Amino acid sequence: MVSGFNTEIEFEGTLFHIQTEARKEAAIETAVYVQGAVIHSLKTSHADLSFPEPDNEQHFLRLLEGQHRQVIAQIRAGEIRPPSKSVVGPDIREKS
Asked: Is the pTM for the entire model greater than 0.85?
């Protein structure tokens, strides 16, 4: 059984790593990383999944891949972005 998918894409100069895995607590979990930090997470529970047949591995694999592709599409649409860089204020050191 495939346990997940990993994809790296570059969008607007930022490299995104997308990782989708099958999980016990959350049936499918997708995390988006930028420079090693998680910037977005999507979890789909077992209750939210519909299986035409119990233990249908092919159907679950399609759901896993579908969620992975959905998150990639959201990145490419600009819906998922890294947090904006904080702006450093003026230097306020004491002058002597």
From this structure: no
